[in-house]
Specification:
Helix content of chain B: 25-40%
Strand order of the largest sheet of chain A: 4-3-2-1-6-5
Oligomer: heterodimer
Distance between the termini of chain B: 41 Å
Number of helices of chain B: 4
Largest sheet of chain A: 6 strands, mixed
Largest interface: A-B, 38 and 29 residues
Number of helices of chain A: 1
Number of strands of chain A: 6
Order of helices and strands of chain B: EEHEEEEHHEEEH
Strand order of the largest sheet of chain B: 1-8-9-3-4
Order of helices and strands of chain A: EEEHEEE
Largest sheet of chain B: 5 strands, mixed
Structural class of chain B: alpha/beta
Strand content of chain B: 25-35%
Structural class of chain A: mainly beta
Number of strands of chain B: 9
Radius of gyration of chain A: 15 Å
Strand content of chain A: 25-35%
Distance between the termini of chain A: 32 Å
């Protein structure tokens, strides 16, 4: 599987479409700065809107300028996070999710970068 | 591999990042990522993919198909698909992605090398330095 097989694809829940995959979250299970053995796919960031997501304002709480942060947060307030364990398939250009749209949580904020 | 965040978002932190070799020389950009199941069946990043054959599917549409098609025609016979850098070679993920290998050891510019060998070098005057 490639990232391009998932990125940008529509996400179909049990009761309708939740948007498109605008990002894929990987986690490490290790403290920041430690040696990492593998980057495991943890879930998908799903949004009805693409605009503004590429600068990361929608997923980070510690970034200014605040006016842009606020606008992007408003635009992305309906974004949803789909844990990879809920993904049933990603064939035929669509990601099938075993949950209703209303059951999906919001996108957890990204932790700040360790120095 | 050293990473400064406990979680990364692929589009935000990995795709299109510059890949740098052990001597600081630029190798390529991250055009796509390969995932394969680990021992527990969970998908993990196994390789960085680079070149037109990796970027084409991300671009999509007629332009994306054309990019893949060009790469398939202008490539060495022993390279199938995009250039691939195993994630085991990655030493650090930060503002760029650093490798433990040297750029010359990686087969990331095979299409350019093929064009140089089979097209550019046959042009009149190609043996003159600029």
């Amino acid at each position: 599987m490639r990232a391009s097989d998932i990125m940008g694809k529509p996400v179909r829940c049990r009761d309708g479409e939740a948007g498109r995959v605008i990002d894929m979250r990987v986690d490490t299970d290790t403290p920041p700065g430690a040696e990492v053995a593998e980057l495991r796919l943890a879930g998908l960031v799903v949004s009805p809107r693409r605009w503004g997501s590429t600068v990361g304002y929608d997923r980070q709480d510690d970034r200014g300028p605040w006016l842009i942060w606020w606008i992007v947060h408003r635009l992305h307030r309906s974004d949803r996070y789909v844990g990879w364990d809920l993904v049933r398939s990603w064939a035929d250009g669509m990601v099938q999710v075993d949950a209703a749209v209303g059951e999906l949580p919001g996108v957890p904020a990204l932790p700040p970068r360790a120095t | 591999m050293k990473i400064y965040r406990p979680v990364l978002d692929v589009d935000l932190h990995l795709l299109d990042r510059q890949v740098v070799d052990r001597d600081g020389a630029m190798v390529c950009k991250v055009d796509d990522l390969e995932f394969q199941p680990n021992a527990d069946g969970e998908p993990v990043v196994t390789a960085i993919l680079a070149g037109p054959a990796a970027l084409g599917p991300r671009v999509g549409g007629a332009l994306g198909r054309w990019m893949v098609s060009v790469q398939e025609r202008l490539r060495p016979s022993d390279q199938d698909g995009p250039a691939r850098i195993a994630v085991a070679l990655v030493t650090e993920v930060g503002s760029d992605i650093r490798l433990s290998a040297r750029a010359v050891e990686l087969r990331t510019h095979q299409t350019e090398a093929w064009v140089d060998q089979h097209v550019i070098s046959k042009l009149p005057g190609a043996d003159h330095e600029g």
